[in-house]
Design goal:
The protein is built from ten helices and no strands. The protein has 188 residues and is an all-alpha fold. It comes from Rhodococcus tibetensis. InterPro entries: DNA-bd_HTH_TetR-type_CS, Homeodomain-like_sf, HTH-type_TetR-like_transc_reg, HTH_TetR, Tet_transcr_reg_TetR-rel_C_sf. Keywords: DNA-binding.
């Protein structure tokens, strides 16, 4: 039997993740059946689960990939920029439904909560580092603890995701993000 190259395996894994992202976004975790995953990826269940232990492992890998992408933007430009990007280019954020599903599963699934907390550390660390740099540079309020700022920004992000995912991304959301950004800036 011929050996499959690492490039081929990586391409196949990417194909599966891309299809699964669309499937989870459209149908939610429960509605993304194995049959639907097969249809959207164009692959058999054997091919899919050769790369991922099970549907939960696939969903976690997808959520982790999305968190890594967000962490990269957060590290460079901040969490508010992630939110601005979501407003400006919602078609590039097909993981919004995935983010809602993560929130639901965090509330209802203790095993998922444990797995996710290990995988989401990268995004939290990027946010903490970015806020620390901004505080050191004198750009952020120093009268609010960093963990409170993170909680506030996470709350705004979750609300924005819910708003966009439900089709209610009104024109004033950019102004709302201006207000959020202003509220965390240092006042001279």
């Amino acid at each position: 039997m011929p050996k499959v190259s690492e490039d081929h395996l990586a391409a196949r894994r990417s194909q599966i993740l891309d299809g699964a992202r669309r499937c989870f976004a459209e149908y939610g975790y429960d509605g993304a059946t194995v049959r639907r995953l097969e249809e959207v990826t164009g692959l058999s269940r054997g091919a899919i689960f050769h790369h991922f232990k099970d549907k939960d492992g696939l969903f976690l890998a997808l959520a982790h990939e999305d968190a890594t992408r967000m962490a990269d933007v957060v590290a460079q430009e901040g969490l508010v920029q992630v939110m601005r990007d979501m407003l400006a280019r919602p078609d590039q954020f097909d993981w919004l439904g995935t983010r809602l599903e993560i929130a639901r599963r965090l509330r209802n699934d203790a095993d998922f909560r444990r797995s996710w907390s290990q995988r989401s550390a990268e995004l939290t660390e990027a946010t903490i580092a970015r806020l620390a740099r901004q505080k050191s540079a004198g750009r952020l309020r120093d009268d609010v603890p960093t963990d409170v700022l993170i909680g506030y920004l996470d709350l705004v992000l979750d609300g924005l995701v819910a708003r966009i995912a439900s089709g209610h991304a009104g024109d004033n959301l950019s102004a709302v993000l201006d207000l959020v950004e202003e509220s965390v800036r240092r006042r001279d």
